[in-house]
Amino acid sequence: MRILKNPLVIVTLVIVILAAYYREVRTKPISQALFAAALGAYQEQDYKRSMELLEQAGQLNSLESAIPALYGWNLLKTGDYTGARRQFAHALLLNPHLDDPRLGLALTWLEQGEDARALASFQRLAPVTRNTLDVRVAMARANRILGENQMARQLAAGVLRQDPGNKLAANELTILTGTADLESLESTPPVAPRPSNLVLAARLEDGFFQVPEGNDWKRMYVVGVNIGPATPGHFASEPPVESSLYLDWLRQIGAMRANTIRVYTLFPPGFYRALYTYNQENPQAPLYLLQEIWLKDPPEGNLYDEAFMADFEKETRDVVDAVHGQKDLPIVRGHAGGIYTLDVSAYVLGWLVGREVESHVVITTNLRNPGASSFEGSYLKIQKGNPTEVWLARMCDSVVDYEASRYNAQRPVAFVNWPPLDPLTHATELRLVDELRIRREQGEKLAPLGLGVQDDLDVVSLDEEKISPKPELKAGYFALYHVYPFWPDFIFLDPQYREARDEQGLNSYWGYLLDLKKHYRKTPLLVGEYGLSTSLGIAHFVPNGLNHGGLSEAQQGAGLVRLTTNIREGGCAGGLVFEWIDEWWKSNWIAEDFEKPYYRKALWHNDMNPEQSFGILKFALRKPPSFVKVGEAPAATLSENASAGVPRPPLIRAIETSFDPSALYVDLVLNTPLGTVPDWSAGGYLLTINTCDAPCGSGRLPFVGGVRVESGANFLVHWTGPESSLLLVARNYNPYQDVPVEGVPGLREIFVPRNFHTGFNPDEPFEEMIIETNRRRYGKDGTFFPPERYSRSLLRYGVFDPVAGDYDSLGQVYFDADRGRIRLRLSWALLLALDPSDGFIFNGTDGEGKTIGKESRHIRLAAVTYMKRSGTAEGEPIQVLAQRAGDRVISEAWTIPWPRWSSVEAWAIPKKSYVVLRNVFGKMTGHPAEE
User: Fold this and answer.
1) Nearest CA-CA partner of 246 in 264, 265, 228, 219
2) Residue 450 pLDDT > 90
3) In CA terms, which of 320, 487, 664, 714 is 20 to 30 Å from 794?
4) Is 3-186 assigned to CATH 1.25.40.10?
């Protein structure tokens, strides 16, 4: 939060400016009046008017330091920091004894990230100014940014004691500690001395985790969720800091009968404070934590880089100290920090070292360090390993060694792994270079490709079985894998997996799990991630229907129950669902080039991108969107005048629209008695959409001969009933082109071409948006696996009103009989908005095939109602509804401003899968939940 954008700062600053005003302009009546008016405009936050008045006053007397000082405050408020610095410096030049411009200069430094200069300027202020509440809060912020956490805490806490309602001080204290509750901070437990006996928070026995229970041990089958903390409008590098938010999540997770959570990196202090509080509230059923220690990208792909290793080992020590409540860590961009004072180590089930490592990192590390084949540490050893396996064994040993030496404590340890690096061999997985060779041999004309770094699958392995725990490691060592049913392709292509069956039928996921568990005979296996997405868009199809996206909330729940059961019956130590909340910032290959600019993507929800909808909780606006009327038909045109016995569809009375961060909503309000369902066989409706703010797409409408749209439409909705709704796109606006593969007769592929130019063509056809999800592949023996495609244009009939009893999370269109309207939910991504929050839309591709965007300020809508004509495929238009329209022409569509937003206020709502998971988790933890 930028401190100057908070209105609480204004009062103090105005008082300081008033002092300067009385000193310097009270004897000058003309400039006094102008200055007073400018000060009043500043107080009313009319900064433009204030500066206009000050320019007039400055012409009268340019030697008054109060004038450039107030001008500087206006510039500071409007974000012109360079101009503000210039004005404050000029004011100080005129009168170096004034605190007002010096304070303004200090706050300007703070806004520009020059925190040391800001703090030095604050300290030069007179004591009476320096001790004001707002200045002390600003100094607290500067100290926090400079890593002086204790001083920042002292300043913020002091302000809160004087002014308990000070929101800025509360915010600073919350960032530092997770709470602004002074009593809670003052009652934190003291640092405990190092135990004389080894403390085991958990251990592994017979392939499963055990936790202490009195003087004995209790087997614990792990069920739970992964927590990615990015709420709407934020990236993973901007996690929430409030302990209260995390505590609310933990209570919901506990109520879901989970016993474990996993985080990917060190979280802010508020998370650990919440974990401590929750477990104090629930001593009989605590939540255990799997704490990951995040691994950055190594320089040039080499894990053995000395500076990189030193940095990672420091990270390890910081994380261990933090969970033991003994760390004061500077807060830097992209990395959590603060004052960690609560010891939650008793609830840390294990350490997870690293992350999913790409194959090119393993290959590079192995090639650059050929001599690293063995390691024996204090707790782990490995013989005949590859250099990456040796490095990981060494890092796992390092975290155990540090915790044991400093805290005389142990807990199980593992490194993070995934199927691309599993130690199994997969006949259906081929290196890209070998695939290209086969394709050339088949006659395909391929341009020379500079392949660069490739992350081929099944070309190198990380095998946890090679690593052995020594007797000194009492807690144990395990393997952790991320396993999904839809990727990599070998999970559902390898014949032995395709033929596997569970109680529900064919299930390749079950086959892969059994094969993986068969390999890990001595090492306990935990599935650290598994999950299913409720996105509208699909990125990958699998035979058992557990696709990468395209599942309703109910289907997500049923699928998760199946996977959860597979993991349990496969002999694993447990599994953690990915993930707790939907995260809007995430990318996926099928969507990433249609989400631009990157820095704004967290402001909107791309529900065509499966990676953004894996959560068990979704987000909705705190205030539901309200509909506004775009246009309506003249009452005189709504008389039915149908020939006797000839059915006709109801005419459209009005068009209404709304929006939220995921979709544009359009209602066609029909002229029909409420509570009745029209005879859809009589005809249909067309909705023309122009998102370009200029003529684009096509000017000719299909299905109704001769109707034209003078300004064009790049999208067209066609409704002829519940089972046949389409969102079509003009061919010259469709980036997904279906083209023949050169040199291979009968083979076609869909891709986004280079140098694709959008535009307007009066006779351009409309077509479906068909995409390719599973690209064609080749096995090691040359077996051909054809591509898979699907149409995004088919709109799913389903009630998308979340309060409706028959709510369908994938619904895109339905008829609301009670209100007499056809309702549409059109995803921004389906409309090819690259950044709907700022009106940035698709505008073609460049020479490399990358998308190009442009700004749009308006959306244009019009509609046509038509009757079916016997003996012809085209209907007869009976209503053309637009701002200006003729019999068969839309001269001017209705125009709505492109909705824009720069922040999101949303609240989390459990999906239907929440209750289903609660039931299956309850059965596995011995706490059955009611339906």
Assistant:
1) 228
2) no
3) 487
4) yes
